[in-house]
Amino acid sequence: xxxxxxLADVCEVKADTLRFYEKHGLLAPSSRTESGYRVYTExxxxxxxxxxxxKAVGFTLNEIRELLSIELDKSNRVCADVKGMVDxxxxxxxxxxxxLLHFQNSLQSLSDACCGGPRSAxxxxxxxxxxxxxxxxxxxxxxxxxxxxxxxxQQVHRHQAPQNEAHQHTHGKTIHDESGN
Length: 181
Prior knowledge:
The protein is α+β, with helices and mostly antiparallel strands. It contains 6 helices and 7 strands. It has helices at residues 4-10, 15-23, 42-56, 61-72, 79-113, 125-131, and strands at residues 2-3, 31-32, 38-40, 143-150, 153-160, 167-170, 173-176.
């Protein structure tokens, strides 16, 4: 038998997490002491571990609730029920990965197109691309001069944007440099 803090410690979560799962109907104490403390059994601990493992692989609370209902009624359910849930979740994760890769490629294109120099952002290719209704990103090819004062001497440092290839391809979109190539 575990009190809430003990079960939380055993499963390496906070007691608030157990209260949260209880509030959402995923976990309930087996009983309460006369003074009102929640008391959990080893079966409750196993259920909490099940919930935590399902959460760790990305299942939502509603999906975990469905998995728990299957778990409680295994003899009347089939593996296809569980596999179907896993396959749906897998497809969702794969779609999210594709979306994140698109974000990564788009952000990389924006970063690559900008020289990142110290001049005013009035002609920043990133801002221009975000303001534009076209899909192309103009690559900055101008140089910036930065002035550095060192012991009353003025030194000019030139910062040149990396020369990108004439065309970059990102998710089927061609990004042209300033020359229009």
